[in-house]
Amino acid sequence: MAGMLKDKVVLVTGAGGGIGREMALLCAREGAKVVVNDLGGAVDGEGGGSQAPAQKVCDEIKAAGGIAIPDYGSVADPAAAEAMIKQAVENFGRIDGVINNAGILRDRIFHRMSHLDWKQVIDVHLHGAFNTSRAAANYFKEQKSGAFVHFTSTSGLVGNFGQANYAAAKMGIVGLSRSIALDMKAFNVRSNCVSPFAWTRMIGTIPADTPQQVARLERSKRMTPAKIAPMAVYLLSDAADGVTSQIFGVRMNEILLFSANRPVRSVHMSDGWTPQSIAETAIPAMRPHFISLDRSPEYFTWDPI
To answer: Per the database record, which ranges form the Ketoreductase domain (predicted)?
Structure first.
């Protein structure tokens, strides 16, 4: 049914291309007024200042009969994040949803990762999600409604090579989302995460040094960004009432629900533990339940259809 976001106002960050663009377009088709944010920078966060990506998406939305305005700020800047929300309220009278999609990659194997590589990725992903969410929180509180959709990744949920910065940021976003869900439940505010499987310009930067890696990336090209947008739109809609603090994956036509971190096994020693008894008793009892060191591409072995 069309119109699931009728009369709602939504901010989509990183919406100048890829998944963000598809979400902005679908939000508009479903009746939302959209603030299309994009810094106009490179995948690694360098550059910026190009207004073309955000403006182009706004032009597409308007050509299809929708309503949108561009924003060119950096989510890593708290003042710019506040300005995004303020622009929505000043132009459209309210803010109903925030999609925290903006991101960059600065992949390095851990022993070669610089502090700058670490900081810039954390700033955009984790600090950026906080900045925009915090800017919207008081509006949501006052109107007793609102929804956040944050983007996480299996690079954090499962693991991957060379992405300690990205994985840490994406796992931090999971904790942020749950905290928001807990703190703002009383105000009818929802907060959920989406872990997307889709071919984007960021995925296109991943090295492919073996025939197996090349084949995997070629398969990834089938997973178009448009497949991700419906879940994000649903989570912003009133139909998602009561759905909060969840982690969803979208992989082509498959939707996954991820578990949260909870104990899977416990052992008890009435006299207390020693290093020796841990080695002899506790660890052997727990070992069958250990998480394996699989990477995301090794865990998700089935082809998307």
So the answer is: 8-205
